[in-house]
Amino acid sequence: MNPNHPYNDLPPLPPAVELENVSILKKAIEAHKALAELKGAVKSIPNQGILVNGIVLQEARLSSEIENIVTTNDELYRAAADEKLTSNPHAKEVLLYREALWHGFNYLKKKPLATNLFIEIAEIIKGKNIGIRKVPGTKIANSKGEVIYTPPEGESVIRDKLSNLEKFLHDEDGIDPLIKLAALHYQFEAIHPFIDGNGRTGRIINILFLVEKGLLDKPILFLSHYILRTRPNYYIGLRNVTEKGSWVDWVMYMLEAIETTALETQQRVDGINTAMEKAQMLVKTKAPKIYSKDLIEVIFEHPYCKIRFLEDAKIAKRQTAALYLQTLEELGLLKSIKIGSEKYYINKKLMKILSK
Ligand SMILES: Nc1ncnc2c1ncn2[C@@H]1O[C@H](COP(=O)(O)OP(=O)(O)O)[C@@H](O)[C@H]1O
Ligand SMILES: [Mg+2]
Fold first, then answer.
1. 91 pLDDT exceeds 90?
2. What is the mean pLDDT of the chain?
């Protein structure tokens, strides 16, 4: 491998080294256990919108942050409340990432993971038709600007490598799916099929793969949180597979990432559940006349809530809805702010859980 020459000799999967050693298998068991617990915890969340905004959007935010697309939670949730109006380009990109993840999740209900889906995901993220790279020149550089890797070139070479990857994902070869996931992520990034968006597309595929294998029911795993915290190791890990064949270290890194983030995501899901239960109790005792399950859910689905969301959810008509939100503010559950002509009711407790 010469960092300046397209790596058209990138070896196909499975890796030629023995991956199922004792420490990897032990770690895989722990990661499976954590994922199974997360899968169970997610079932307790009543409303899909809460998961999408609470977890999926956070994964979208941090996966984008790995690529230096940085947005605060306040900007993001405000943008999510007013998708058409937002002018913040980074918040927009994060919302596109969420859309891409959700698109992939729905695709899997009909068809298995495949090159076509990878392209669709990258195109949603980039907001344009980019297709597989056709022209040479894509390179990966380190923070000093030195080229460390040149991915394979030539559309048919790239497509062949993606076909091998697809086949590997679905082969009944007895390889543990979490070990497969680690191999998948390296390989996808090493193929680097697009001009841009490879990191984010690859991290979406990771989560979709877990759904495809039945290890998660919903596409929620806060994997990017761990990757962001350990970003230098993430880059070194990928690089060392190419340069030194360090597969074992890479698989261990990914298994640790899965285990840690499954536990963290579960804590977050539990935190949201507990906060919802408390809010429910409070409203039931202090303002029973306005209580409904839907009202509690809507303020947990929209951390930046607006009167219109209550109208859309058919909870109340405009004036009554305004009164409801005011009452919830008096109870200390929400805090209103006015931005431009729009009034938002912020669920501070939820924002705190999401920002951890
Ligand atoms: N040495 C490397 N070998 C292969 N892939 C790498 C290497 N270093 C970084 N990457 C991957 O490349 C991604 C960045 O590629 P890019 O196309 O710019 O994605 P995005 O637009 O989502 O930022 C990183 O997030 C990482 O997954
Ligand atoms: Mg990029």
1. yes
2. 96
Q: Is 104 in the pocket of ligand 1 (CB under 6 A)?
A: no
How many angstroms separate the CA atoms of 205 and 218, rounded? 13
Do 86 and 92 meet the contact criterion of CB atoms below 8 Å apart? yes
Contact 91, 70 (CB under 8 A): no
Residue 185 CA: nearest ligand 1 atom is 27
Alpha-carbon gap, residue 137 to 283, rounded angstroms: 60
With CA atoms as reference, report the closest residue to 186 among 118, 258, 242: 242
- The share of the chain scoring above pLDDT 90, in percent, equals 92
| Closest C-alpha to 95, from 117, 116, 71 | 71
- The pLDDT tens digits for 312-330 are 999 999 999 999 999 999 9
The count of other CB atoms within 10 Å of the CB of residue 174 is 6
* Rounded average pLDDT over 50-68: 92
Q: Which domains does the chain have, with CATH numbers?
A: 22-265 (1.10.3290.10), 287-355 (1.10.10.10)
Token code pair at residue 111: 């068809």
Altogether, the residues listed in the chain come to a count of 356
What are the φ/ψ torsions at residue 343 (nearest 5 degrees)? Answer: -105, 130
Closest of 284, 200, 272 to residue 51, by C-alpha: 272
Taking CA 73 as the corner, what is the angle to CA 266 and CA 51, rounded to the nearest 5 degrees?
A: 35
Centroid of ligand 1 to alpha carbon of 68 (angstroms): 12
Helix, strand, coil percentages (3-state) for the chain, rounded to 5, are 65, 5, 30
pLDDT tens digits, 125-176: 999 999 999 999 999 999 899 999 999 999 999 999 999 999 999 999 999 9
Tell which atom from ligand 1 comes closest to the C-alpha of 66: 25
Tokens of 13: 């999967």
Measured in angstroms, how far is the CA atom of residue 23 from the centroid of ligand 1? 27
| pLDDT at residue number 84 | 78
CA 47, 48, 53, 54 torsion-angle sign: positive
Question: 332 near 345, Cβ under 8 Å?
Answer: no
Between CA 222 and CA 231, with CA 228 as vertex, the angle to 5 degrees is 140
User: What are the phi and psi torsion angles at 304 (to 5°)?
Assistant: -110, 95
